Amino acid sequence: MSTIRRRDALKMALAAPMVLAGGRLGAQAQTAWPTRPVQIITGFGPGGGGDIATRVTYQAVSEILKQPMVVENRTGGNSLVAAQAVLALPHDGYAFLMNGLQQLVTPLLMKDMPVNYAKDFQPVTQMVKYPETIAVAKDSQWKTFKELMDYAKANPGRIRYGTSGVGGVPHIVAEAIQLYGGVKFVNISYRVAPEIARDVVGGQLDLAVLNVSTLTPMIQADKVRLLAVGNDTRLKDFPDVPTLGELGLPKANHADWGGIFAPAATPADIVAQMQQAVAKAAKTPSAYDKLAGQGTLMVGSTTEEFKAFLANWQGVVEEVVREAKISL
């Protein structure tokens, strides 16, 4: 027995350096990243909620990863311009796409897509969520959501609202309000969301369906009135404003969101490092508080959580797109 023990001990002693070496090799296997600036390309226009959230989040990520995170706006094509810009760059972990619901909706609306989101991209993390608002100018005739809907039912096609992207969350919420509320609005397309807020205040539009972050300057200036919000609960800063769910429209009661996607060929360990950095940024008090003050909640979900989130949204948008007959 003692001989066996000595033999086993000798094997263990010989194996120990190999285990240690294996541990060192495992640690070295993770790609040294980033060693230079990383591009974050978004289809959201400058100054909107998505743009602000991306810049604040990636300022924090830059400090965490010790490399510049360069946010670039490439508007147009329902975020396809941004997606194509990312795919045109090397798929080496130095270019990511920040996108929203267009990632799921656009393929339902276009037959000949220049980008195959399902194959060309992989989810990384849900970066943020921001509640939607149903807002009118401060001097609007409608003081409540019910008054707005009563007018819309009596005057189909008279209420004008704007969207900055077909198939974005604001558009889906507006279409769901019409579909399930039995009303008809007129949709006017805009290039960027802040222009919608401006034109509601100026009287060119009757109604805005925008996330809280985009509308914050007008709210702070007391130029708009919130009639409803799209969110799980009422907002802390606006406790008297009901959710669309409370108002009898649960299928329209959605918050906006933004997520990070990587080209499909991006190395898995780099995707994991980016997810971890965004999750850490979401817990950075300065970044969290800055966005929370504008109605934006930092999330930093795991990749698996984000995949489940996207799968749930897929069912929502397919129903609304089909029933409302949305098209580009």
What are the main properties of this structure?
single chain, 46% helix, Bug_dom1, 328 residues, D-Maltodextrin-Binding Protein, domain 2, ten-stranded mixed β-sheet, disordered N terminus, 20% strand
**Continuous helix count:** 12
Given the helix and strand composition, which structural class is it? alpha/beta
> Got a strand count?
10
Instruction: Please identify which CATH superfamily of the largest domain we are dealing with.
Output: Bordetella uptake gene, domain 1
Overall, the morphology is globular
How many domains, in number, for the residues?
A: 2
Largest sheet, in brief, is:
10 strands, mixed
As a percent range, the share of helical residues equals 40-55%
**Could you please say which CATH topology of the largest domain applies here?**
D-Maltodextrin-Binding Protein, domain 2
Q: What is the CATH domain class of the largest domain?
A: Alpha Beta
Mean pLDDT: 89
For the CA atoms, what is the radius of gyration? 24 Å
Instruction: Give the CATH architecture of the largest domain.
Output: 3-Layer(aba) Sandwich
Unreliable residue stretches = 1-28
Listing every helix as H and every strand as E from the N terminus to the C terminus, the arrangement reads HEHEHEHHEHEHEHEHEEHHEH
Folded structure, characterized:
The protein is built from twelve helices and ten strands. It is of the alpha/beta class and 328 residues long. The protein has two domains: 38-130 and 256-324, Bordetella uptake gene, domain 1 (D-Maltodextrin-Binding Protein, domain 2, 3-Layer(aba) Sandwich), CATH 3.40.190; 131-252, Periplasmic binding protein-like II (D-Maltodextrin-Binding Protein, domain 2), CATH 3.40.190. It starts with a helix and ends with a helix. 46% of the residues are buried. This is Tripartite tricarboxylate transporter substrate binding protein.
